[in-house]
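queue> holo job accepted (S-adenosylmethionine)
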Amino acid sequence: MAWLQATIDTDSVVAEQLADALMDAGALSAAIEDALAGTELEQPIFGEPGEPVDKLWSQSRIIALFDEAADVALIIAAASTQCGIALPHYAEERVEEQDWVRLTQAQFEPIRISERLWITPTWHESPDPAAVNLQLDPGLAFGTGSHPTTRLCLQWLDANIKGGESVLDYGCGSGILAIAALKLGAASAVGIDIDPQAVRASQDNAAQNQVVARFYLPDATPPAQYDVVLANILANPLRLLGELLSGHVRAGGKIVLSGILQEQAEELSAIYATWFDMEPPVFDEGWTRLTGTRHATV
Ligand SMILES: C[S@@+](CC[C@H](N)C(=O)[O-])C[C@H]1O[C@@H](n2cnc3c(N)ncnc32)[C@H](O)[C@@H]1O
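queue> job finished
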């Protein structure tokens, strides 16, 4: 079994419309990426939940997959006509059947977070069995440890969990932060996510790591206060969640915020200074970690 793949360079303004038209005309899949990805001109563009992305890559590339018997030229011509654009430049190649599982797994290697903390996929031996090892596979929920926003939180946990803390992981994704906190010695951990798939993935991952954590949708958040509250979400939800998150941190407890772009750090830090003594931000690849200690009274 084989497929045909077309790599189509296109104007970013029509990329989404063209990808949809390709699907309508018979493509099996059509993914849009930055045509300059992997070069010095690559443009990192991030969206906020619930908000349209207001920036486009300067050039887009559509990677479309077709059945082996498809007439790719005809489909691209039909899709271009539907979008009212000239036939774009494209390259076509044959993609042979491969061991996709093995190929995917090969992309996920163990990740060393710190001297003593590793994140390892289940199909790998841990490189350091004596370390604190989290077993985590890429799945439907965000959080494998490879992203700087997660790494910043894991590094904070590694340096600051001394043993016995209660932890709230708000926006838990895969549950990675709650699970890491428990593995590092926290006494209890609760995770919250708006995505039911993330709640399920977190439960599965906790079981895989033989730790007991509780995961809920926001409506079921226990009305408790914690020693540590982590929230790796994004700037916009963090702007809106300040009151709620601060209410879950005991006086003298810590807040750890991530998912904030470097240029958003000052504004977010000022918002959370309402409830916390904020520390200087820590940056990693353009992302920010903010931490603070809860005021005794507000
Ligand atoms: C960037 S992921 C972080 C996952 C994981 N905690 C980590 O550090 O890798 C953000 C998660 O927050 C969840 N989320 C976004 N907005 C939320 C909100 N308002 N309340 C709860 N969870 C939210 C998303 O569904 C997603 O799973």
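queue> The mean pLDDT is 92.
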